[in-house]
Amino acid sequence: MAESNSSRVARLRAALHSTSFLGRLSHPFTVFGDMWVAFRGPDAPSRKMALVFFLSLGVLALALGMAYQRYLRFQDLKALSSGSAAFEDASKNIGEFIHKQAETARHRFSTLPLGRFNVEVRPAVGSEGDFQSAEIEIVIECDSKETRYFIEDNMPRVRDQITNVLLPLERDELMTRDGKKLLKKKLLDRVNAWLPEGQVIELFFLDVIVK
Question: pTM surpassing 0.70?
């Protein structure tokens, strides 16, 4: 014979007040079925307990849903943060690449080889010997491509300015660091004084051969 509603309600109330109810949680369909019967049954305390049960489940589901939404939001923020860092790294690399390309282009359009110059070299002070000859290859770096173009268009004149400085030199002026530094300054000062505008910012001795 089927179990009556009153019998099932009584059994539910007994189960809720006993420790064996925890064991019934391993059978959720049975628990839900019992609670649903109690909610629809005539016993007011049992309906109240069933209502509290279903409300508790609703609150639990809402809390789990909110926690899951926060977890998804955290994952989105984490991914966005990683993407921003990657974007910053890529932007930095692109910026460095553009800067290097700009520097390469600037050097390409601002440097100018002046060619080789033959120079007489005097013996060192206090020593005996004949004059020697030296060959110097010079390259300059200008402050702009306009300055470079001007010097290139007036190459004989700028070479003449260089030659006037490269009078017979002492050996130390070509073979020592301090001598080359002083000679470089003299050449820069002479060329920049000759230029109507612009400036030569650097001068290089690519090759110095004493014969």
Answer: no
